[in-house]
Write a structure and sequence with these properties.
This protein is an all-alpha fold. It has one domain. It is 85% helix and 0% strand. It contains 16 helices and no strands. Helix 12 packs antiparallel against helix 13 and helix 15 runs antiparallel to helix 16. The longest helix has 37 residues. The protein starts with a helix and ends with a helix.
Amino acid sequence: MTIRAVQSYFKSYQEHYSGLIKLGIPVILAQLGQVTVGVIDNMMIGHVGTQELAAASFANTIFWLVIVFGTGFSYAITPLVGKARGNFEMNQVGAWFKSSMWAVVGMGVFLSLVIYILSLFMDNMGQSIDVVLPAREYLWIISCSILPMMVFMGYKQFCEGLANTKVAMNIVLIANLINVIFNYILINGKLGLPVLGLNGAGFGTLISRIFMAACFFFVFRKGKSFKSYGEIISKAKFAVVDFIKIWKLGVPIGAQLVMEASAFMLSTIMMGWISVEGLAAHQIVLSISTISFMVYLGIASSTTIRVSSLFGENKIAEMRKAGWAAIHLVILMVIVIGLGFLLFRNLLPTLFSEDPLVIALAAQFIVVMLVYQLFDGLQIVFGSILRGMSDVNIPTLYTFIAYFLVSLPTGYLCAFTFGLNEVGIWWGLPVGLGTASILFMFRFMKLSKQELTE
């Protein structure tokens, strides 16, 4: 293939590149903002002590396993709203809002109960008692943020279905500042308050998430850009059938994400079987990798918006091109971000810990992380394409195969059978992610080809 042919090939995707980037940048910033709350907590907690960082790692692993399910559940809202918007069915858009808000509130209550039940079994997960006790108390504090976080996600995903991605970005960035301020005050006992240490970070996170939900509630009702939708929503009626459809789509999507999160959670638990330093290093690299993951997730979210809209308009050929354009973008991002991680692999861990052993282990994990980042980016984008086409059941099965039948057994064998110890657990991750990306890719190719021939 000549250089001119290559240029012509990529130029044919130019419209989709620009569209995805325009939608994706605010989503990326919002996603980065959300995860930065956790990263900031880990950085501040890490300087309190290694044991506190290990406790935060343990608690956050359980918390994110649950909240990832809720986040995935809320993802069902975007393609439904996007498809209705693509078909110019504005009354249905209003109906989706009412059903989706009831759905996320119900899910928030349910997940809060799940967190409490899980907390009762934390001392049966093979962790040191010195880690379990502070981790449980910290978990109870941040679990109070589940309901406001689900309300925020409901607004966010609805707005993304309307191709409005900037409001969530602005709210999250302000919330980050609030989180940093309250973390500093409460962790260190400033302004005459007691020193709360690890629990102070939990309260800072809770306060910032309450702000996020309250702010979106206010902006949605008072903002000029939402005025026309407010009138549509006020006339729309709640429909049980729509409520049920959100649950039917949302639960499989949540299951997909929670299976992936489970691989990381169980990897964290296995890491705790080996050493506290390995657990702390594991949390550091997960925090670092989550930042880049949110970049890929931002592109994936914009892909769902674009794919669902084109799917609603029955523009299948353009929908396929939009999907492949997203893959091109995420591969480019993986290369650029991966080079940065490689160059600074010995420096980045020092932002979280001063323990030499923790820093050394984290640097090793980062090398493995570079391998799985590629597959992680591919699987999340292919998964988002399928969500935009409202295809969720088969991908859920593929996710189970990739993580529970491939990733976790591989990590266990590498760590405990082949003697690779802490770094061996990390080698199971790229194997599982690679399996998921390949299965999702073939599913997308099959479904889009069927749509073209119908």
